[in-house]
Amino acid sequence: MPQSLASLKSLADAVPVRLTVEERQLQRLLCSALDVSEYTDKVDVYSRDRDRLIRDNLYDLYKIMLGLNINSSKDQGRKMLVKAFESEEDESVTQSMAIARCEDWFRKLFELGRRYKRMNPDKMRTEYGKLVTLMQDAVQKERLMSMSVYEPVRTVTDVLKEANLGLLLEDEQLTVAASPIEKTVAEEVSAATKEKEATISELCKKYGGDDAEKKEVVELCIRSLDDGSCFLRDNAASLARMIELLKHYYHPQTGAALRTKSGDISISHGHGGSKLAHSHAGHFQYVLESLTLWKCVLSDVFRLWSAAEDDMLDSSSNYSMRNTGQGIHRMKSAPRTGRAMRGHIATAQSQMGGKWVGTQIVHLGDNDVPNALVFIDKYTQIPRMINPIVKVIESLDSVAELPGQRAYLEKKFGSVEDCKLAILQDFFRHAFDGSGDDGGSCIDGRLTSAWNWCSKLHKKPFHHVFLLCGFQGFDGQW
Fold first, then answer.
1. Contact between 163 and 220 (Cβ < 8 Å)
2. Which among 90, 137, 291, 435 has the fewest CB atoms less than 10 Å away?
3. What is the mean pLDDT of the chain?
């Protein structure tokens, strides 16, 4: 079913616009520079003269980026730097002055890197952390560096307004052009794809006319909005499926279910590493509210990501270096992220009928979650944890049809259904039992417990079943 025009219009305010071919070249340049950089290793240490340390290392990194730009863009990069060194009124131009004159280029470079990351959470895993931390220092040291490197991430709405194409967001045809295709039958998918492409072409002609550049902008924005819609749909799909499995196999009160011999998922403190104690009914509610909350968060991840970056790059509040017990981290408050997260908790609780079993404490700016960057990194990894488990459950029936596999599953677990139950029962119990270094029933502790379960998969009796189904790891690989 196509999305409503109102939801697409709201989504356009948050969805980053696709990178152009030229921007992708710059994005690769940025990744190359950040890949070889040791900025955080050198700067995130205790030092009496942090200003000098930050300034020197930022200039070193800026020089690397400018050098790579000269090498990749040839004359364009060289001309930009030559212009930066041009003197005015016979004054001598230092390297730092020339770098400051290139601030527009750095703003563009850092903006497109952040924009790319939001649309591709599995990319730039180490580079993104370096990018945000160096920008955090650059923003706070603007006066010291005499340059500004911050620019808001360009969204679909921003680009359309710049091109005077805002009316596109009021067109009902957009609901066809920028909504995910929900069909599953091959013929229906093919027909829906053709209709979608024809609608995009029609909109490009309608709003672009004979102007080739405007047509490109229209198509870029439509496809960016479509990317965002599909991204959010896919993020929430695995969680929706896990909720279906929970409700299918377990009764919310008694533990009885459709095809299970033992439908109990109660946990007791100390048993199996659990730090919580819940009856079956209490734990069913706890698991369901956790999955529902994660689904709410991932359905609005673009806005949450924007809030996290705004908190990290807010120059009005400083960070402090602190040993959290998990190494030295930048401790910084995150009021925007906290407000957004409390809104999602309220939404999830409303969907649960007002009930809530665990605590609603959101750890931000403390030893558990020192800053918004750590926070957003945790939540964007949820699909990497849930997707493999769902894929194993859904592929077990077809795997059982392979020679010898059904006999193995029946000997080991009793039946294919019992194998599914063994996996789900263990996951629902011990991925939500408060275990882990900073586990518990708080909002952050739920994720910690789930990742703790994933880290111990190799010790589970069904680990070989995961391997039979093609599982390679929870690191985005399959």
1. no
2. 90
3. 90
Give the start-end residues of each E strand in 277-336.
Answer: 320-323, 328-331
pLDDT for 159-213, tens place per residue?
A: 999 999 999 999 999 999 998 888 778 888 899 999 999 999 999 999 998 999 9
Query: What is the rounded CA–CA span in Å between residue 136 and residue 139?
Result: 5
Residue with tokens 């924007």: 306
> Are 441 and 276 contacting, i.e. CB atoms less than 8 angstroms apart?
yes
Distance CA 274, CA 436 (A): 9
Number of CB atoms found within 10 A of residue 265's CB: 25
Range 474-477, long-range pairs (CB < 8 A, 24+ positions): 474/384, 474/385, 474/388, 475/384, 476/122, 476/384
Q: What is the pLDDT of residues 322-348, one digit of tens each?
A: 998 888 899 999 999 999 999 999 999
Q: How far is CA 263 from CA 241, 249, 284, 286, 453, in A?
A: 18, 7, 11, 16, 20
Separation of alpha carbons 275 and 10, rounded Å: 41
Q: Determine contact, residues 432/447, Cβ cutoff 8 Å.
A: no
- DSSP three-state, residue 37: coil
C-alpha 62: how far from chain center: 27
Which H or E element spans position 343? helix 335-351
- Backbone angle region of 342, left / alpha / beta, with phi > 0 → left and psi within -120 to 50 → alpha: alpha
What confidence category does residue 433 fall into, taking pLDDT thresholds of 50, 70 and 90?
very high
Q: Is 184 helix (H, G, I), strand (E, B) or coil?
A: coil
Contact of 108 with 151, CB cutoff 8 Å: yes
Two tokens at 24?
A: 């992708």
In 10 A of CB 53, how many CB atoms? 16
